[in-house]
Design goal:
- The protein has 182 residues and is of the alpha/beta class.
- It contains nine helices and seven strands, in the order αββααβαβααβαβααβ.
- α8 packs across α9.
- The longest helix has 16 residues.
- The chain is globular, with a radius of gyration of 16 Å.
Length: 182
């Protein structure tokens, strides 16, 4: 409850800062190296799909060298997931770097969303168009398992996060098949 209160205050504060509109589409792809490498075929087509936009990406710091070795992105932003979760000063510096930006669109292409990472980034980044998957929220449940051992409590909190997290998006995409790769 305390962390949720902090997120609400943080969000309110950063929304009050005036921002400048940018012709930028931001992808949030902060999963591990394997899923990032699999996704690179999609990344290769981004410039062709959005030629009039600047393509930016937020990635897990472990994927930096891979992302830099391509010409797929106009801007690469690294996040240290451990620091994001545990270091309030790191988190605030990261959020502050986006507070003066109003992006055209934010896309979270990760199917198994996590309330503490992707959903919080989507929430605080200013954009009218925010797209993600209507997810299985498996990654969120794994994050919560580090703090909550009771399965019933874990499921209740995960369901609440799912509902709250969905509200941060302007569009949620339904999966087309029973089995889906990142």
């Amino acid at each position: 409850a305390l962390i949720q209160f902090y997120y609400e205050v943080e969000n309110l504060f950063y929304k009050l800062i005036p921002s400048k509109k940018e012709n930028t589409i931001l992808f949030i792809k902060i999963d591990a190296i394997g899923d990032f490498v699999i996704w690179m075929d999609v990344a290769d087509s981004l410039k062709k799909a959005y030629p009039e936009y600047k393509i930016s990406i937020i990635i897990n710091k472990v994927c930096l060298e891979i992302a830099k070795s391509t010409n797929y992105f106009d801007e690469i932003i690294c996040i240290d997931k451990s620091k994001w979760l545990r270091n309030i000063f790191y988190r605030n510096r990261f959020i502050k770097s986006f507070s003066k930006r109003q992006l055209f669109q934010v896309i979270n292409p990760i199917y198994s969303r996590d309330y503490f990472f992707q959903d919080q980034l989507v929430r605080i980044i200013k954009s009218k168009i925010k797209i993600g998957y209507n997810s299985d929220y498996f990654n969120n449940k794994n994050t919560l398992r580090g703090f909550i051992k009771n399965e019933n409590t874990l499921n209740k909190i995960n369901n609440w996060h799912f509902s709250k997290g969905n509200s941060f998006y302007s569009q949620l995409i339904e999966k087309e098949h029973n089995h889906i790769m990142e």
